[in-house]
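User: What would this chain look like folded?
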Amino acid sequence: MSFKPLFARSLAAAPGRLHMAAHSHHLWPDASFAGQVECWEDAARLADRKWDRVMGELWPEAQAEVAAELGTGRPDDIVFAGNTHDFILRLWSAAPRRAGGPLRVLTTSGEFHSARRQFARWAESGDILLEALPVDPIATLADRLAERAGAADLVMVSQTMFGTGRMVPGLAQLAALASPDGPWVVIDGYHSFMATPEPLGEMADRCFFLAGGYKYAMSGEGIGLMHCPPGFGPRPPITGWYAEFEDLTAPPGQVGYAPDAMRFMGATFDPSALYRFVHVRRMLAGEGLTTARISAWVGALKEQLAERLSGTPLATAQLLDTPSGPARFLALRHPQAAEWQGRLLADDCITDVRGDVLRIGLGLYHDEDDLDRFAAIARRL
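Assistant: Here's the prediction, encoded as structure tokens.
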């Protein structure tokens, strides 16, 4: 069995390439091309009236898909933006500052660049007071965050660490500490959304959840998403005009806000990513490809790939998580990681490197032939 036909356009565009970075820039399925074309055609056909279709049809369909994927069944708690960094700005502006003065942020040493860099710069400028706990030992990370959460206004932690692929256990106990008055708990789900079934579930009433379309949603850039728990931040200070569309009760002259997740909306946006996401979700449903089924497919490939690394220089690296783990990639730590990534690239084999960690990602568009081809290239490193 192979799912390559679903990605015919992307694979044919670079037939010699072996793309082993589905965890980084996931190849786009053909369904996304149909979505991109429909977006253009709607703009040409409807002109100004395209927003009735975008906000009246595509937006609620996408909300419903995200809510179902998160396991909450609450579409009104979902809002979209161009990227997750937009949401970090809005959360920073809206979170309570219980001690008066700078926002107190508690996070980890393993967060992705969009949060890591922004938090570091805000700490440098005095706009936040930052505490970052070491990720390891990861088994106690949620406990350690919970112990320090009382001294924070906002806690941000990845559900699956982007550098190692390891999932943080026990986040529900951290979520239980969240309150509209502080602290707020924000889960970065970029490597769990559409990789782990129902990653939010019972935490929906307490947690913010960030993710996007670039990776396992297979929809490309331009679509960040956030689940917003009810009652948290009813009037975000950083706000766009879309955020007041549904507020018909505000007195004249007052800045109004929608009562649901739309309160965190910005302004006019490029809707093409929304079209791509909806088309990809329709394709997956039509093929019977649930996140659980895709994860089983990728998990089997990961285990086979780990076996094929035997006899290659990559076998000397430290495997940072078990192949049966939830991440869609193998993370190999070795001083030569960057050198290996460069040599693989010279053979038109795409992986990526984070410091001394080589990441090899798998997706629906891979099969056993790709594993054999990768192993052959790896033996020449």
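The domain at 4-30+289-378 is CATH 3.90.1150.10 (Aspartate Aminotransferase, domain 1). If you want, I can go into more detail on any region.
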